[in-house]
Amino acid sequence: MRWVLLPALVWGETFLLDGLELSTTEDQKNDQPIYKWFERAFFSAVQSADCTHDETGLQCRNIRGGFDEERWQNLISQMWRLVDAATRVPALAHAVAMSLYSWMWWEGPGSDRVNLITGRLACDFFAASLAFNGCTDPALGLQEFYVRNCHMRWRYLMMISSELGRHLALERDLLQAAQVLRQAQGYFAAMRQLPAFGPHAGVLASPHHISLNADYFPASVVQQGPIWSARLPIAEFLEEHFATIKGELLVLLGEDKFSFMSQVTRNAEPQFGPRDDDWLTAYLVRGAQFNEVVCASAPKTCQLLRSRPELAQCGSGLSGSGFLRMRPGGRLKPHFGGAPRLSAHLALLVPDGELFMSVGYQTVRWEEGKVITFDDTFVHSVTHNGREPRYVLNVWMCHPCDPTEGHGAPGRIMPEYCHGPEQGVLPPTVR
């Protein structure tokens, strides 16, 4: 890759770049235009489709399928133009950083090699956006800290820098790993000096102790960690009905309906895996709204899920459930889930071989018929080096410590793990 110099920018509060009207003073105004540009260009290249945005989101038409080399090279060229602009216009730094992480984490479609160049650039730009917004100043008020999205800028910087360092160490590039990890350690030390990440947020012994749920329910984060030991009622319920749920999945697979169900419920999501089909979800319900087309093919599973208040009565748009497939050789890049919520996986088909999920500072492997309850607002990723697909029923539910959600029990008493000296700084209704 090479740097492409831009023509002289038109200075002022706004300027035009490749048809995008961008701000030089308010970086959050640049997030959506730049992100949408990357999203549209990415899906156009990897699906050979004509993609545009409308009021419902990204719409791709004339989908021919397959990788389009010309469109991909155009994306790369335009990416470097935006990178070059962001080095000189700090208000672009955050949008470019988030887009590089979201769409350029891998070296290219089909490659499971982490793109170290764009990864390190994303770190540099996240750091620049922190400075631009005053997010490194301990005197910045807590409310303003959150208004400026400083809490998320810091967390993405820590996730990317620490995960890049870990990747380099696993690849035995120890010299570069040490360099990246030293830089991550410096970022982490600076972050820990800020009021938002003080004792009230719980234990932050390392970047992998960071959890978005700590803004809401830090006591539960401290007491339960990434992989929960507490047995939630829904976990026991799913295990009790394992045979029924697995049976419906097997029928779907036997009738070759899974791909159809995945396409029916799919929305435009960031590049989670290096291949478009590494991670597929056939959603049964999202935001308490059941998909009746899909439920017609899995009626018993939907009936079971409708009976669970943690899901069916969860008012959060972050809730949902569906069958998840991870293809052999698949990867799920490090990422945060939305907060506040909790996740559970009922393992349905788990093949032999190297297959694991890293969540925060813990690693776990699925066991058929068993539920893993975990806090997906810790950074998490999946590696699948087996020979057969892995299937789970995933449930994203309202957090059991959320006082704004009844979970079907009027006057319910909060579990003990919800209480402690740590107190969240955001109300659960702020999502």
Automatic annotation (TrEMBL):
It comes from the Eukaryota. The keyword Signal applies. One of its GO terms (molecular function) is dioxygenase activity. SUPFAM superfamilies: Clavaminate synthase-like. Residues 239-400 form the Aspartyl/asparaginy/proline hydroxylase domain. Keywords: Dioxygenase, Oxidoreductase, Signal. InterPro entries: Asp/Arg/Pro-Hydrxlase, Asp/Asn_beta-hydroxylase, IPNS-like_sf. Residues 1-19 form the signal peptide. The keyword Oxidoreductase applies. Coiled coil: none annotated. Belongs to the aspartyl/asparaginyl beta-hydroxylase family. This is Aspartyl/asparaginy/proline hydroxylase domain-containing protein.
